Amino acid sequence: MSDLEKKKKEIRVRFAPSPTGELHIGGLRTALTDFLFAQQNKGKFILRIEDTDQKRLVKGSIKRIIHSLEWSGIKIDEGVFLNQKGEIIQKGKFGPYIQSQRLKIYQKYVEKLLQEGKAYRCFCSAQRLEKMRKEQLAQGEAPHYDRKCLNLTQKEIDEKIQKGEKYVVRFKIPSGKTSFNDLVYGKIEVKNETLDDQVILKSDGFPTYHLASVVDDYLMKITHVFRGAEWISSTPKHILLYQALGWEKSQPYFCHMPNILNKNKRKLSKREGSVSVQDFKQQGYPAEALINFIALLGWNPKTEQEIFTLKELIEQFDIKKMNKSGGIFDLDRLNWISAQHIKRMSVEKLYGLALPFLEKKNFFQEWKEKNKFINQEEYLKKVLEVEKERLEKFTDVGEKNKFFFQESGTIKISFDEMRWKKQTNQDIQKNLKKAYNTLYNISKNNWTRANIEKELLKTAQEKRGELLFPLRAVLTGQKYSPSPFEVAWVLGKKETLSRINRALDLFKNLD
Ligand code: GLU
Question: pTM value?
Fold first, then answer.
């Protein structure tokens, strides 16, 4: 490593969710961007928990957020983790990383701002603020604090405090303009007069998001802030806080990401169904597929490639290619991406991932019970080998091909369903017998997909439909299914012959 490289500042990014429920896919996108950027730059991905709004906390969220990140393959380098026992722990030299445990730190900086006249105590009651807000709105003004408490004398302040009056601390927005260069949106500039004197410390002693996030980003040496576009309007306030605290040289880069939109180009909301990582996990999407889909929501690789592993994303993701317009959440696209990932999976891996979903199905439990003496794992892997090509998610396993789990006697099929074009019943019978004999002559050891296909095609000659259509129908009882070669291979010689035999029995009554 050259001296220059050694001196290069370590890239440090943070994902800073508020523990108010499940990890939303918008949050996953932020975390993924943080993670990819950190990995590309050999930097650190920090998980910080922003729980300063105590009213909005939802029990268990921290654990659920970490589980969702872990499931997605996003590795935390520093901050909040779960240990082996599933308990919350913290690691890193800039802790604590849970904001409610850092109150003294924030109070110290609030004190500094107060002393320097950059912040002031505000004793206004909630009723007064509400009345003022309504009046301003009625006059067509944007609601803002009228600075009534800005010029209280020290004596007045002391008296109020002595009387036990509650107060908040507001940041005194200086005059002028504030600008920054957003990595996605470019230069953004606002007139400070449009900014409200933001509350930075609440009457319960907790800081607000604005102060806590600036103090922590500074103390935790964060170099890049990635977050949703809804925070753009907060950034000038943050920059002013950096300046007021004398930290402008350490100000991070800001990168706001466009919102994820629904098909009507509105912000995606919970009302539209699944929006949390947990929802998608439960529906049986592979984590790689969800990550791939989410990465492509705001980022255009500008190549033909659409399917990416996490490793490929780390190599190719480029924040400079991020779009300004919101990515559209298209479920069909997720399904397609998911199918591609499943297709590329090894059967071993698919088996491990799909089994828990199969276990929840009644038809599977019944099959398990009735087939105790076969090698179930071997059989299921064959089912998956065939289904792999057609699955969109793990929950689909077996759903379209229940005949793999049915007893031969329960497969019902009518003559019409077996009929290829204008075949007579005798034609069907004749072809089923031919198929039976062909399959009968394949030894158990040669019962491979390739052999079954080769032998059946040899028997069929040019008349493939005549032989294969009725065969597929009696093996599956369905109009659509994988090919009879694949189905016969999975079912095994004994079961295949027995299904054909049962169908042939139906013809006996016709003779
Ligand atoms: N706690 C904020 C959130 O949940 C974080 C915003 C930020 O990254 O600055 O969205």
Answer: 0.91
